[in-house]
Amino acid sequence: MSGTIFRTTAQHNADGKNEKWFLTPLFLILCLLAAPPLLADDSVAAPPADRDKPGLQAVPLPKTDNLDEETRARLEEARAQVNAALQERAAARELAATYGELGALYQVYALHRSAEQCYANAIALDPDNFRWNYYAAYHAASTGRMPLAVQRYRQARALKPAYKALVVRLADALLDLNELDSARTAYEEVISETGLEAAALYGLGQIALLQRDYETAIAHLTRALELDPAATRIHYVLAQALRAVQRTTEARTQLALRGDVLPAIRDPQIESLMAMKSGAHVHFIRAMKAINRHDHNAARGHFADGLAREPDNAIALVSYARTLYLTGEASEARTILERAVTLKPDNVLGLFLLGILAEEGGDTARSTDYYQRVLKLEPAHAGAHYYLGNHYFRQQDTRQAATHYRQALAADARYSAAYIPYLGALIHSGASDGTLLETLRDASHYFPEQPIYRSLLARLLATSRDPQIYAPQDALRLAEQLVEEQRIPPHLEVLALAFAVNGRFAQAATILEEALMRVAWSMPGVATRLGATLAAYQEEKLPAAEELQDWPVIQPPAFDGQGPFRNYPAARPY
User: Measured between alpha carbons, how far is 27 from 29 in angstroms, rounded to an integer?
Assistant: First the structure.
């Protein structure tokens, strides 16, 4: 409805005569009833009450008069995406993503009230999403609400304990609240973390200064400046510490160098947030949404559009290379990845994917070199350890293979692909049954939906030569559960073994006959092995000990290049 209809001054009608409009109550009611919804213009509303979603806040339209036309258009587009998601009854996580992206845009353009409400909605819809919790914490700190920032940083940290940049920001908020002991503990946790050392030392230097431990303050602050000479804010604090110990000349020198630049914090999440001011960002967001739809062709085009505006974005180049590979352009993907690591030599994901491409091309020496370079930069990189483990397993160096698989699982206990080859490498390298038992229990704990680990556990309990581990009755109970869930030949074989080791050979033979019948035509090799075992059971004998210990599925896995390009997580995709 046009705003000009509400006029009380004299106007000209079609005949040129003066005419007055008055806002009578009836006329006002009719106008309000006829007015279109204000959703798109005034607020992003909560969903209908009957939706299975938590209560959401309406997000008022902020004033954007001070922003340029392109920025206003981006904000309007992001709001429109939220409204569309609401109207289409999008899934909670998808709706949370639209609220979160809008909140992030509001944050980088200092539209703080609207950013706060967007983040609140995103967290209500997707409470376990680290990104929205972390952005909300950073926003609270940026707007001076330190108690809220500390609370939110701790919530975010519970979701992703290994993300160390958060620890520095939490420590900064605690220091601002004068919680010095907690702040010191947090800074000390990350004092040796690459990219965070200077910020941690700066914080510890400030704490030492507040506690009048001037020599410690000087040592920390001097070292912080050595690590990050561009951090000119350190000079002022160092000058105070020097002045306190009567080193006046040095204090004056430091004071003359003071500035406002804080120590840099390597923080991919916040770097991604700040990058949203770039005009390329909208294209990168579209690319990621296309990836979520598994439309890699569309994602490839959007990344190309964004990189046309921001050609030296090494992180986005890696994501672009991934879409190229997944759309059949492996050679072009390699070229783009090489460019990315030239621009950013410590680009861990780029180096890792170059290693995958080298291994796929049969150049194992080059691929191994790439994986080793990754581990120098990030010693706990699960993917590099896993692929190195595979390499050594194929070379029959099972001890080295087991070491790398173990480190892959230490870095990421849920790295499901590593468990089976790790077990194989352990068995081939003569590991104890205790080590096998611990590994199988971990795998069963993290992946209860995958019966293979429980099947192997039942086999171990039935065949172990370690009296502390040998538990035939436990093996039988576990095997019976497996067959009840899925009556398939591998489970039947384990159940037959469990019956046999419990002395129930007749039942073992009956069960194994069923398994043998199922594989007789489709898997002749397996059928031959089962036939020999059946003959032993029919004679009320167990197979030879070495046959019992001849575990299945203990070969190195086939090479998989698609998996890392499709699924390996990126701390920051653009």
Answer: 5
The model's pLDDT over 544-569, given as tens digits with 9 standing for 90+, comes to: 766 655 555 567 888 999 999 999 88
Q: Which of 538, 539, 534 is nearest to 512 (CA)?
A: 534
CA atoms within 13 A on the CB side of 360: 16
Please state the φ and ψ torsions of residue 355, each to the nearest 5 degrees.
-65, -40
Quote the crossing angle between the two packed helices 330-343 and 348-360, to the nearest 10°: 150
Tokens of 99: 């609220």
DSSP assignment letter at 258:
-
- Averaged pLDDT of the chain: 87
Burial 474-493 (b: 16+ CB within 10 A, else e): ebbebbbebbeeeeebbbbb
Is the Cβ–Cβ distance between 498 and 479 less than 8 Å?
yes
DSSP-based three-state secondary structure for 11: strand
Q: Are the C-beta atoms of residues 71 and 110 closer than 8 Å to each other? A: no
Full set of structural domains in the chain with CATH? 71-256 (1.25.40.10)
Handedness of CA 261, 315, 390, 452 (dihedral sign): positive
Q: Taking the complete model, does pTM exceed 0.70, yes or no?
A: no
Cβ neighbour number for residue 233 with a 10 Å cutoff: 15
Give the model confidence (pLDDT) of 275-309 as tens digits.
777 667 778 878 888 898 899 999 999 999 999 98
CB atoms within 10 A of CB 76: 14
- In sign, the C-alpha dihedral spanning 50, 53, 54, 57 is negative
Backbone φ and ψ of 326, nearest 5°: -75, -10
Amino acid sitting at position 97: A
CA distance 387 to 400: 12
